[in-house]
Write a structure and sequence with these properties.
single chain; alpha/beta; Aspartate Aminotransferase, domain 2; Aspartate Aminotransferase, domain 1; seven-stranded mixed β-sheet; 11 helices; 14 strands; 36% helix; globular; binds pyridoxal-5'-phosphate
């Protein structure tokens, strides 16, 4: 039986040729390809500056370090996200404070932020979950009013767009707050195997992030290599090895070129799912706010109380037909690693979405015939 995966990266001869070019150049550690990728990625999302790193998780960790967050600081974020979001807050020794999400978008509910603030609150870490832009139009003024830093976890959101001024659309990642972070994991829109990127506009912060990514070393390998005289480096603070290799950088540059062709088919497929499921009483579908254009990194349906089967029963029935799905976004606060963290607010919507949402197959090469198979199967199973 032919199976339909939940996601599939779009990689071709161009990426293979780029990797070959980097390999045969003799320079494979972070170097000119990554530098070019940073410039090309920044241009693609309209950001003044970008720093590449080894993963979306590393990007989050570096971003929070770059804003000098540490022990005693509280960071407002969502539990309803991949575990990396909350973990990054803990890497710097700060405390994540979770607020609930909106059912229609799966994103942070800005109306709940003020109740979660204390004198120790230093930042908001807002996620554009599954590519759906979060409500920056309401979050930005709150961050400004309370003098909080703002980091956008845009791991899934390259190519998504937001309109904060009527009629003007801009890509996610400019960034609107202080920094935005992206992931190049194969489940995301563009991939380098693993990889990440931070965008920002403060040259001082970005220069420090670039150093922290390579042990905070005062001189890069490329600088020493090209210096023409003997130079010794220094280590003014504790940094990390969060570099992206030049093989990955070369692949990433081809992926950035493809970006528009990766988003357009996703939007067509999402619209077809929307059409197929928006009138079924057994499920609700995600709602794109008027000011948001998702890249549809994922499409999900959420079972309503009218559905006769549970989430796992529906997923199992789809799997029996060769259709792979994933449960809705996890909640960090329900994991053993977070049992010691007291909740400041209940998170009923986050929990409902984790237990009732199902992520359906969606990727640029999914054919309409395959998608029709998914649609028919979901309808038959539910009705
Ligand atoms: C994937 C993801 C991350 C982590 O990215 P990696 O590249 O896998 O480390 C962080 N936050 C969110 C919201 C994600 O979806």
């Amino acid at each position: 039986m032919a199976t339909i995966p939940v996601a599939r990266p779009t990689l071709g001869e161009e990426e293979a040729a780029a990797a070959r070019r980097a390999i045969l150049s003799g320079w494979v550690v972070q170097g000119p390809e990554v530098e070019a990728l940073e410039k090309e990625f920044a241009a693609a999302v309209g950001a003044p500056l970008a720093v590449a790193c080894s993963s979306g998780t590393a990007a989050l960790h570096l971003a929070l370090m770059g804003l000098n967050l540490g022990p005693g600081d509280e960071v407002i974020t969502v539990s309803h996200s991949f575990i990396a979001t909350a973990n990054a807050v803990r890497y710097v020794g700060a405390t994540p404070v979770f607020v609930d999400v909106e059912a229609e978008t799966g994103n942070m509910d800005p109306g709940l932020i003020e109740a979660a603030l204390t004198p120790r609150t230093r930042a908001i870490l807002a996620v554009h979950q599954l590519g759906m832009p979060c409500d920056l139009g309401r979050i930005l003024p709150l961050a400004a009013k309370h003098h909080l830093a703002l980091v956008e976890d845009a791991a899934c959101a390259v190519g998504s767009e937001i309109s904060l001024t009527a009629g003007v659309w801009e890509p996610i990642g400019r960034p609107r707050g202080d920094l935005a972070t992206f992931s190049f994991h194969p489940r995301k829109i563009i991939t380098t195997g693993d990889g990440g990127m931070i965008t920002g506009r403060d040259p001082k912060i970005m220069a420090r992030l670039a150093k922290l990514r390579t042990h905070a070393m005062s001189l890069s390998t490329a600088e020493r290599h090209g210096a023409g005289k003997v130079m010794f480096e220094a280590y003014p603070e504790v940094g990390y090895n969060y570099r992206l290799s030049d093989i990955q950088g070369a692949v990433g540059r081809e992926q950035v070129k493809r970006l528009p062709q990766l988003i357009a088919p996703r939007r067509v497929l999402a619209a077809r799912y929307h059409e197929a499921f928006s009138r079924l009483s057994q499920v609700t579908v995600p709602q794109e706010p008027a000011w948001a254009r998702s890249n549809w990194q994922s499409y999900w349906i959420t079972l309503t109380p009218q559905a006769l089967q549970s989430q796992v029963e529906v997923m199992q029935a789809l799997l029996a037909r060769g259709i792979h799905t994933r449960r809705g976004v996890m909640c960090a606060h329900r994991e053993p690693a977070y049992q010691d963290l007291p909740l400041r607010q209940p998170l009923p919507v986050s929990e409902y979405l984790q237990d009732h949402s199902i992520i359906l197959p969606l990727y640029p090469d999914l054919t309409e015939a395959e998608q029709d198979q998914v649609i028919t199967a979901v309808r038959e199973i539910l009705t």
